[in-house]
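Supplementary Methods S3. Complex input for the pyridoxal-5'-phosphate-bound model.
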Amino acid sequence: MAQPMVYGPREGLAQLHWNENYYGPSELAIKAIKESSHKGAYYPDLLVNRLKAMIAERHDLDTQNITISAGSTQALSYLAQVKSRENPIATTQLTWDSHLGYAQNIGGTVIRIDNGDNLEINLKAIESISAKNVSSVSIVNPNNPTGLLLDSNELRASIINMSKNALVIIDEAYNEITNKPDDNSMIDLVRDGYNVAVSRTFSKIYGLAGERIGYIIAQPDVIDAIKNNGSGEFSVSMGGLAGAIASYNDEAFLKFSKSMILEAKEMVYEGIASNGLTALPSETNFIFVNLGDIDANDFRDEMLKMNILIRGKYGDFNQWSRISMGKLEDIQRYIDAIPIALEQLRA
Ligand SMILES: Cc1ncc(COP(=O)(O)O)c(C=O)c1O
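Predicted complex, serialized as structure tokens:
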């Protein structure tokens, strides 16, 4: 018997572990993806150029400053591999770092700087290591899994210093969700000629994680290095590109999604407080919850028994649990499940 197609989480599961946006894709994106599927026999080179032109126009850049990839992970991974062949890569201890794992797999070294008090990124410590034979510095802002945002003036000043010695890679996967996306972005530093690479993705606020489109903005030599080392812009799909192009300027959809994320975050903050828990202030679509004496893996397992999927622990940060914002009904299920999970684990 033919198996049914499975396009998303199984029926009844509240999937809240990957920071996706379940209000997406936007209607415009869905229409474009459907339309493009009729021309799926053709390679999508013209759409790659079109998306790059749109990004270039918005940020007053040249298309040579941009490369498109299958999710930002792909371009970030190639870049990490290139840089790790030159010298170690410096990053923070608690961060999203899948791409750095690939650099380590080919023999690269990754230096991890401890987070400061309250789990924030220790910029001063990263700055001092950047002068010591590292090829690049990798920072996620706002950071994942903490959701914390760096002060944009401090970050900008620090990048200007660090970029004299190393390529500074800023992952802005969640930039659009912050309070002031333009102020918080470091793309202007690329425009001003600094040795900075900024990554962005259509997987988060745009709600196109399944379509796998992301990009990096950097100086042309960095872009060429990414393309020449494997990405080549040949691994992106026509459907993904069509969806990305159609939703790039869909302000109504982005505004709606952001308002839903904010509403969900308010619900979660209230829900955890009423259960005696605390959390970090998040500028993203996820919240890092301090479970106190409870182990985050045990908490995840209890939640899963109730068909709610959240993240387990990160490294040695045993009592920290990340919850992604989702549809409000799923968030309500998470909130209702907190006291039940806590009671089981404290019994
Ligand atoms: C900070 C950060 N960067 C990049 C990614 C990967 O995104 P993409 O789907 O664009 O590969 C994620 C995914 O969770 C992320 O949290």
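Residues 199 and 216 are 4 Å apart (CA to CA). The mean pLDDT is 96.
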